[in-house]
Amino acid sequence: MPGAASHAADQAGRNTQLLAQLARVSLAEREALLRGLIEARLGAFLGWPEARRLAPDQRLLALGIDSLRAVDFKILLETELGCALRTSLLFDHPTLEALAHHLVHALGEPPPEAVGAPAPAAPASDGHAPAGPDVGVPRIGEMGEMAQMAQMSEPQLLGVLRAASARLAAIEAARSEPIAVVGIGCRFPGGATTAEQFWQLQLDAIDAITEVPPQRWELSAFHDPDPAAPGKMIARHGGFLGDLALFDAAFFGISAREATQMDPQQRLLLECAWEALEHGGQSPRQLAGAPVGVFIGSGIAEYAWSRHGVSLDRVGPYFSVGESISMVSGRVAYSLGLTGPALTLDTACSSSLVAVHLACEAIRRGECRAALAGGVNLMIIPRISVALSKAEMLSHDGRCKTFSAAANGYVRAEGCGVIHLKRLSDARRDGDRVLAVVRGSAVNQDGASAGLTAPSGPAQEAVIRRALQAGG
Question: What is the full DSSP assignment across 23-68?
Fold first, then answer.
């Protein structure tokens, strides 16, 4: 067909022109040209009335591209660039910057002026393994037959043994290395939205416990001093945060529609995780792709409970991820582009402590280079407080009296706290401000205590002793 042949020839000509243009510029300019090309083709593909400039970290699927249209756009780019691309292109490289970077390398070798560049220097040691003792010394694992060891001189054998001993010592030291806290992000009752404000609350001895605000539930409808009153709670007090609806969705690249379907706990954690990194002098956007873990303690998802009565006609595409407890940590890892482990933990009252313990252990085992660890809790509906009241766990006068004979229960509270953790040696190397050091931690379980929720004194004593022993 002449028309089809002419169109193919025109397209081939455009491909040749584009590739020639890319070959004449540096690698960085090449990537910039491809970003512009993607923006232009994406605008035409989505029917935008005029061209738009997209942020480098803009997630392309969030612009309204589903899986089928992602394949169509992949085919469009294949035609434009004259090269084969994977069907999962937009899923594997989800942002404008990542896609342009991938296409630079998918098109082949870098431009001629970059080919002769010197090879990059070997990466510097991270300080966790000795670099000197085994320089120029043959390693046992590299020698092949054991018979060769018999041919080594005594100094050579001693060198091998010293190198092996140094490596073992480095491994053992890494297993017990202290972990530094280098940043804090938080939201606590009493208006504490920074670590400094939180410490000031302690210094000023401010009592942040108040009566339940009407924004949570109508206290008169659910309170009764009689603990046996059906559907009522004896507690009138708690620790509460401010307006949970306040959230800058666009800042995190989240649509307004999705933000309204998100558990407020997810929104709080995004803010606190970002602030914990900034508090320690780390730019969150520079961590995309970094092996940083997220370990978050979180209990009952009251937001999900609050939507149990919603008509199925109102269930939308963001309902499942908006209320899933796994997304409490997963959302942080996704939004910041972190590739370490992401775990949401529920071990009741110890959830945040266990999260910090697992984060420290993951760093020591090399599963992640650093970690964000902490916890979040919000009281959205009265149901959970009613249940805890019936279990006689809540204080009727709204005060915790730890170690007192007058203790009559605890007081529920809201809050969110995230700490940025890394090896102490890394923190010192990077010039970080070290706020605290975790030298040891431990976890155990009560076993068969007096009741399912009853604490065990011996078990708690044992875990404290193990933590002290782990800390040296």
Answer: HTS-HHHHHHHHHHHHHHHHHHHHT-SS-----TT-BGGGGT--HH
